[in-house]
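Sequence design from tokenized structure. All designs in this work follow the same two-part layout: the structure record, then the generated sequence. An example of the structure record is given first.
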């Protein structure tokens, strides 16, 4: 198998391009050898303190005393990884995700974009630890205090992982420059698109509300569909691939709406990131890429703007009109995103919108007789492919659900707020108050109209009943007229009130700040890498599973399974032996994954040790 790399893992055949900090022999580099003299001198001056006291002063499980002393005096820039032969390391299965993490760019730009002060824990250690924590379903940095620091450290070639306080200090140093995490995420997104041009042809755009329950600031309210409530929070707008894999996100405390975000942020970024087609393959009527979104961004003017940019749209029709005749629908075989083939009743027409734009309208007929209408400006793709792409939009919804449950996407990373630019436009609180009053009065008016319509005389008419009927009718008419006068007055006042104002114009009681964003953006990018790495492994494991939907659950079991580490310093290898799983069928799928991982010939970061994956127990 050696020398033949699988296309899915070719990106990690060679070690990442950053300075190696250790060697397979376990010996220190020449620079560290020179520093070791200083470390021995420092250690000799503290001979009165016992070894146990020195270790205790450096933290539980800290055994590499000299390296830590050298780091304390600023003479060590990241401790070199040194592995020992160990058995039954808990949660060691996360090391099986290392080739996929490196293939997705975990350490590709770490040294170019980030820097840390000299210390025991270097950049690569921090990046690796945070990514492995995400895969191990560690909810937050604080939760790592309840994990075994020594066993986690052995997985990274160290004596122990940093304490929570140290890890937070590292994050603060990494996230000190605003906007750096966004640049890192954009660079990775561009590379992911270039590496997989097929997934860069269709993009799903949608917003996800991260609810905030804290008291540091009163964030604007957003409608949360999963809660069916308007709650305070921020809105993250995501761009995902056809199979749900994420590319990037843009956070907004003040939600301008999906149409505004597409115009101002998402589409300009995609235009810069999406690979340009080759000149000889470019076609004047074939779009550069396709945007898929829901009815929130329905706008004929926006559709025309995208068509002028050679960007196709695919969305639901907000005003589909009358049902089509059932005779127009035909049975078509549609291949879904996971490869399944299903039968759908589909029909197609051309339709013209209010602004004169001509689009394709595709309708799906369900067994209950309901017709779902789809619009698109892609005039060349088959209707079966367009239908499959539109109905695969739920992959993005499933991505949100999975990330919330397993990667804790909505969890706060740090406490604190920062000011919002004063030029940011927000909804005028006075306009919102007037609009709310008008809606309330309109509801009262509708109820009065309903009572007025229901009131009638029945049976034999008597003088007293007619008089009461006339009085009741008159009272209702008077109430309706009074509500009309109030509504007209409020509508006039609302018309004179600006709908949007800047943050600077907000009254003092209504002003708010935003949650700190840089550290959250950095951690979210690491979670995106972890999710994409897991997805790569899922695609391989599914090839050997009869129950394809169990692939992610199987990988979660792998991440929590014990491993044995067997370094071979003569052959420059590090064997990671995973213990057997609960079923023979699962073992067979993992053996298939093992063969794919070994073909990558991945080098453990900072060393010359080639990773070898095995399944079994000693």
């Amino acid at each position: 198998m050696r020398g033949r790399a699988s296309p899915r893992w070719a990106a990690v055949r060679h070690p990442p391009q950053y300075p190696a900090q250790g060697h397979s022999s376990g010996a220190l580099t020449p620079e560290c050898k020179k520093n070791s003299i200083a470390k021995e001198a420092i250690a000799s001056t503290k001979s009165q303190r016992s070894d146990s006291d020195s270790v205790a002063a450096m933290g539980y499980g800290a055994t590499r005393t000299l390296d830590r002393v050298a780091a304390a005096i600023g003479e060590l820039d990241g401790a070199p990884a040194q592995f020992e032969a160990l058995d039954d390391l808990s949660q060691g299965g996360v090391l099986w995700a290392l080739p996929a993490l490196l293939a997705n760019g975990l350490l590709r730009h770490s040294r170019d974009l980030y820097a840390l002060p000299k210390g025991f824990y270097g950049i690569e250690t921090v990046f690796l630890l945070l990514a492995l924590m995400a895969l191990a379903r560690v909810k937050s940095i604080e939760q790592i205090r309840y994990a075994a620091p020594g066993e986690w450290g052995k997985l990274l070639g160290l004596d122990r992982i940093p304490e929570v306080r140290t890890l937070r200090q590292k994050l603060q140093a990494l996230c000190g420059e605003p906007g750096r995490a966004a640049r890192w995420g954009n660079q990775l997104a561009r590379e992911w698109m270039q590496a997989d041009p097929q997934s860069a042809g269709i993009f799903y755009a949608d917003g996800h509300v991260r609810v905030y329950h804290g008291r540091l600031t009163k964030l604007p309210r957003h409608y949360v569909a999963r809660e069916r409530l308007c709650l305070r929070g921020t809105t993250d707008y995501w761009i995902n691939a056809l199979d749900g894999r994420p590319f990037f996100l843009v956070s907004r405390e003040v939600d301008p709406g999906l149409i505004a975000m597409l115009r101002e942020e998402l589409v300009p970024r995609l235009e810069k990131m999406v690979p340009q087609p080759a000149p000889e393959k470019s076609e004047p009527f074939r779009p550069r890429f396709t945007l898929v979104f829901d009815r929130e961004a329905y706008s004929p003017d926006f559709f025309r703007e995208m068509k002028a940019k050679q960007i196709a749209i695919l969305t639901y029709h907000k005003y589909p009109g009358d049902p089509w005749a059932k005779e127009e629908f035909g049975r078509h075989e549609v291949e879904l995103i996971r490869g399944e083939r299903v039968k759908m009743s589909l029909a197609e027409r051309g339709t013209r919108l209010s602004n004169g734009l001509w689009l394709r309208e595709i309708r799906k007929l369900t067994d209950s007789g309901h017709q779902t209408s789809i619009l698109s400006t892609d005039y060349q793709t088959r209707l079966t492919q367009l239908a499959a792409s539109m109905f695969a939009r739920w992959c993005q919804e499933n991505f949100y659900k999975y990330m919330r449950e397993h990667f804790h996407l909505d969890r706060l990373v740090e406490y604190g707020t920062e000011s919002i630019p004063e030029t940011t436009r927000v909804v005028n609180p006075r306009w919102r108050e007037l609009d709310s009053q008008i809606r309330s009065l309109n509801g009262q008016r509708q109820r009065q109209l309903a009572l007025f319509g229901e009131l009638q005389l029945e049976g034999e008419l008597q003088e007293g009943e007619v008089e009461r009927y006339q009085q009741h009718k008159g009272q209702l008419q008077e109430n309706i007229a009074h509500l009309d006068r109030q509504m007209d007055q409020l509508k006039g006042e609302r018309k004179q009130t600006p709908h949007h104002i800047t943050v600077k114009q907000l009254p003092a009681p209504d002003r708010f700040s935003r949650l700190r964003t840089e550290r959250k953006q950095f951690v979210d990018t690491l979670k995106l890498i972890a999710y994409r790495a897991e997805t790569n492994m899922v695609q391989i494991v599914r090839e050997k599973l009869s129950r394809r939907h169990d692939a992610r659950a199987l990988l979660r079991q792998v991440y929590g399974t014990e491993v044995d580490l067997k370094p071979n310093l003569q052959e420059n290898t590090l064997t990671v032996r995973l213990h057997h799983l609960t079923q023979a069928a699962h073992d067979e799928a993992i053996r298939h994954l093992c063969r794919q991982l070994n073909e990558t010939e991945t080098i453990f970061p900072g060393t010359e040790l080639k990773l070898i994956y095995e399944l079994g127990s000693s």
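The first helix runs from residue 30 to 45. We note this feature because it recurs in several other targets discussed in the main text.
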